[in-house]
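Colleagues,

Please find the record for the two-part complex below.
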Amino acid sequence: MEERIRKAVNEALATLGAADVAFVVERPGVAAHGDYATNAALAAAKQLEKNPRELADSLARHLTEMLGEVVSHVAVAGPGFINITLAREVVALAVAEADAKGSDWGKGTAEAGKRVIVEYSNPNAFKEMHIGHLVGTIVGEAVARLVENAGAAVARDTFGGDIGPNVAKALWGLRENGTSEPTSASEIGEAYVAGSAAYESDAVAKGEIDALNQALYAGTDEGLMELWRKGRAVSVGEFRRIWELLGTHFDFEFFDSDTTASGVRVVRDGLEKGVFRVSDGAVIYDGEKKGVHTMVFITSHDTPTYEAKDIGLAFLKEERWPSDASIVITGNEQTGRFKTVLAALGEIAPLVATKTTHVATGFLKLASGKMSSREGNVITAAGFIRSVIEKASEKNADPLVAEQVAVGAIKYMILRQAPGSDIVFDEEKSLSLEGDSGPYLQYALVRARKILAYAETGAGGTEEPAEPYAIERLILHYPAVAARAARELAPNLLVTYLTELAGEWNSLYAKEQVLGSPEEAYKQRVTRAFAHTMTNGLTLLGIPTPERM
RNA sequence: GCCUUCUUAGUUCAAUGGAUAGAACAGCCCCGUCCUAAGGGGUAGAUGCUGGUUCGAUUCCGGCAGGAGGCACCA
């Protein structure tokens, strides 16, 4: 519909002698203004040297004629906006479509035929996942689902750190404790904290840890490698439990150790071609010439840094799952580093670099100050989820429902904001399950489903309301919202829409009785359309849809 | 010092250069004969400061103030 209006506006502008006008067709901020609005007259006024109001008037006349029975009226408002209100039959058609299509309602085709690989979560083995990792995992899953919904074939991958100084610190700590069989992520996390502390304060320990790091890369110390493999398995097992709880699975779980060799090879190769240069014994990329930070790719100890591993990873992904686009989701503290890696990659493999998009997620900040896994004052992901589930249990005896509500609350808290902006984490508030929250959306859906469950025996009244309900005019925009959220990789756009949708539903629910009313058949159709829209929207966000609350 | 980014109501967040800057929480006032009140209705409350571009700026550009992140051998 939006396309159709856009086309009509373009043709109308052409008849008036304006070409290549940049205008928008959008849902007006105020519902009373209509279903669509365009600023075309304002945008074209200058080019045509006409009064915007007058231009809007003639444009509106053309549009009324061209759109015919599709619209009920076209009005000019304010400085020259053109507001378009759809005919009720068109609204009814959209609602009927939502009703009929069910889980297919809102599926798009913008990315049809494309292969997209999405990387996110990226946890470090030998550290516990903390609440910061929740952000990337949750945003990543939502982005993957949005892109999938737009028609793309999507592969999910995660890139875990399993080698390097941090791992050496954890291994040192485990050895210090005489642990040869680590059994829990928290045990390993504590060993890491101990190793980090020793690295800072104890020169002997520092030397030992550095040696362990080199030995890890060499991979010849069988005893060490055995402990490394066991520790990694325990960490990864814990990650998988959290991923499952959050509704995420990965097609590829890559690790540093998989990309080290190819990363080094590619960087060495780039060194010969002059992409990199040697400085103080290290191989660096001179970022200044491109306006990015200069960074070390291979250290003077001949070990690769994360940057070299990232280069290796880009090639590994290409080899395992060739794609048309590659999306990488990380914390925003990685943005500078990522620019350098992409700049370097751009000189080595331009095609791989240009198809890569970096999405930065916000930092989860504690009201009490910065978290640091090195200092051990972190809120672990597992612990946090547990505490929210506990809170949700107060109102939900069913443990499955409590879990669904808790996961919904956490995801909503993170997805409601534009990715990239920091999230202030206040435990009291984030545990609240009311108002602008995941459970608010879930609850609206539960109430609608309950009506539909009662209504299974058939509908009574066949009358229709004089005007479509406000929620119907909202439902018809769902496919466009889902498409835009996918295009902009911005799940928050969908969250805002669904919150508004839930509000309209609750409002209708309070005012109108569905069952047994004179308009029962009509209202049931609206209820089904709402339920499908909310279910599909929440599913795209990865928010569970409980059967009852 | 350099680079990036942010600053909207008491608080947490929205708003492709457009209309009366939207919500929610907290506050105050209402709604329990009716499909689940985790609800609904009402009320009050905000664009850091300062120039510029524009018919029009929360949005773009400059300056100032304040916050966050990054800046070669950590990830």
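Chain A has three domains: 2-86, 120-366, 383-541.

Comments are welcome before we finalize the supplementary table.
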